[in-house]
Design brief:
Number of strands: 9
CATH topology of the largest domain: Nonspecific Lipid-transfer Protein, Chain A
Strand order of the largest sheet: 6-5-4-7-8
Structural class: alpha+beta
Number of domains: 2
Order of helices and strands: HHHHEEHHHEEEEEHHEE
Helix content: 25-40%
Radius of gyration: 19 Å
Shape: globular
Strand content: 15-25%
CATH superfamily of the largest domain: SCP2 sterol-binding domain
């Protein structure tokens, strides 16, 4: 592992997690939980197999990732974050929140997955009406499906299709994520191709997290 050779905590942190793909591997392990090498690679479009192997070994050596032999019927190696690795979650939250300012444009060829759609509400929004009734919002962006469940003041998300959603938001990722994170209002999102079917008042319960609050 290369080092910046500086006696500084920022430099020491980047010695461990500053290489290309490293933090995205941590992102996938946070979102997926313990998973196989192929699951990780599928969640990291564009990474070479040998580079993923190298990064995982570096993370293991740093005490951030553990590998375990799963019993049958899985019968393969599972990768997971250690307790030290899990402490990177607020770092990823803060980095993701800071990065929202660069999400105003969709670049041709950018990959997009349902898992990335699902984590945005849980990381970047809160329930503005914690005493409100349970509600379900279906998200559809670039054909990827995720579900927001509101209840008990909590925001929970899953990948897939809801049986009877109270509201359906369908449109390009820029519009769906922009609306959820407060980067744009409903009118602007609809101009970009978003459709909102059902109880639109539920959108008032999704309060974007600000950098100051985070």
């Amino acid at each position: 592992m290369r080092s910046y050779g500086q006696y500084c905590s920022v430099a020491r942190a980047l010695d461990v997690v500053g290489d290309r793909w490293t933090l995205l591997i941590v992102r996938e392990l946070l979102l997926q939980g313990p998973c196989r090498f192929t699951d990780l690679k599928n969640g990291l479009p564009g990474i070479a197999t040998n580079l993923l192997s190298t990064r995982l070994k570096e993370l293991e050596d740093a005490g951030l990732v553990a590998r375990d032999d799963a019993p049958p019927p899985v019968a393969t190696v599972l990768y997971s974050l250690t307790e030290r690795g899990l402490t990177l979650e607020p770092v990823l939250h803060a980095l993701g929140l800071w990065g929202l300012q660069y999400m105003t444009d969709e670049r041709p060829g950018d990959a997009f997955q349902a898992r990335w759609l699902a984590y945005a509400p849980t990381w970047f929004t809160t329930d503005a009406d914690p005493d409100g009734p349970p509600a379900v919002i279906q998200l559809v962006a670039a054909g990827e499906l995720a579900v927001i469940e509101l209840g008990d003041g909590q925001i929970r998300t899953t990948i897939g299709r809801a049986a009877e959603p109270d509201l359906v938001l369908d449109g390009p990722p820029r519009a769906v994520l922009g609306l959820l994170t407060g980067a744009m209002d409903l009118k602007r999102a609809m101009r970009l191709g978003l459709s909102a079917t059902g109880h639109r008042q539920l959108l008032t319960r999704l309060r974007p997290v600000t950098a100051a609050a985070a």
